[in-house]
Amino acid sequence: MSTTPSEIIQPAAPILHACPAPKPATILLAEDDRSLRRYLEVTLQRAGYKVIAAADGLEAMKALLLSAVDAVVTDAIMPHLNGYELCRFLRSHPTLSALPVVLLSGIDQLNATREGDEHADAYLSKPVRAEELADCLAQVLANAD
Fold first, then answer.
1. Residue 144 pLDDT
2. Beta-carbon count within 10 A of 88 CB
């Protein structure tokens, strides 16, 4: 049994061009409690985000100035520079002022908003559920576009 050249060259299936996967958003996570920071970091990574973790507000500020970040999730009460001060820094910075910020607090939202003009995009009360954080972050990122 012999084969002809046309039988050998026929492609088996159409060639599909791979679309590049969308680049995951980079989230700066500032939380001073080590175990909670790790939990939130894993939660965000499982939701498809790239995470830069910081142990306090000052470390977070340094990371913001050195790295491209799409959003910030910060604890309200931290040493060296708290979440309210970090938010105030962001809102006054010429290139970082539009970054979405999610503020995590053990204080309820009503009291958190009375702290001043920090202008966080969202407030979540601790303890925060994984789904609640992922949904909130997706929403503030969508609103930022």
1. 84
2. 17
C-alpha closest to that of 117 among 97, 144, 140: 97
Q: Say how far residue 107 (Cα) sits from the centre of its chain.
A: 22
Cβ 41 vs Cβ 15: under 8 Å? no
- Quick: pLDDT tens for 114-133: 454 458 999 999 889 999 99
pLDDT in tens, 12-31: 555 555 555 578 999 999 99
Cβ neighbours around 131 below 10 Å, total: 10
Residue 101 dihedral angles phi and psi, to the nearest 5°: -130, 130
**Alpha carbons within 13 A on the beta-carbon side of 12:** 0
CB–CB of 118/102 below 8 Å? no
Query: Domain 24-144, CATH 3.40.50.720 — does that match?
Result: no
The structural domains of the chain, with segments of one domain joined by +, span 24-144
97, burial (CB in 10 Å: exposed 0-12, middle 13-18, buried 19+): exposed
Give phi and psi for 125, each to the nearest 5. Answer: -85, 140
Backbone φ, ψ for residue 62 (5° rounding) = -60, -45
